[in-house]
Write a structure and sequence with these properties.
Elements lengths: L16 H41 L4 H14 L12 E5 L2 E15 L2 E10 L2
Antiparallel strand pairs: 1-2, 2-3
């Protein structure tokens, strides 16, 4: 009788259902955080662009600079977190520097919030 040698049993490779569910939860949570945080980051960069523009061409007094920011805020619909009165206006080396800081609280799920503190200044 002739015996053939059977190939060694190969171990199956792949992902289990639990592994798949775990990755789905991780990816879903990362997508949720990204979708909630992205608009606030966009708002920050919009404020930063407005502050840089106003520092260069906004005016020479604090009320003029704040009024210029409020006009820019009326044009840029995405600026909701601060207004002209929240700006700090100083002068460094005969150059106007406009700075700001604010905190943004983002609701992720009912009792869970993410707090992001933004701050910036003109160049």
């Amino acid at each position: 009788m002739h015996r053939r040698s059977l190939p060694a049993r190969r171990r199956q490779a792949g992902i289990t259902l639990l592994g798949l569910l775990l990755w789905a939860v991780i990816i879903s949570f990362a997508a949720l955080v990204t979708m909630r945080v992205a608009p606030t980051v966009n708002e920050y960069y919009t404020i930063l662009r407005a502050v840089n523009k106003i520092a260069v061409e906004g005016g020479s007094t604090v009320p003029e600079i704040r009024a210029a920011f409020d006009r820019q805020k009326a044009i840029e619909y995405s600026i909701t977190s601060i207004s002209g009165k929240d700006l700090s206006v100083t002068k460094e080396n005969e150059k106007i520097v406009v700075s700001f800081s604010y905190a943004k609280e983002i609701e992720l799920m009912a009792p869970v919030f993410l707090l992001i503190k933004y701050e910036g200044r003109s160049k």
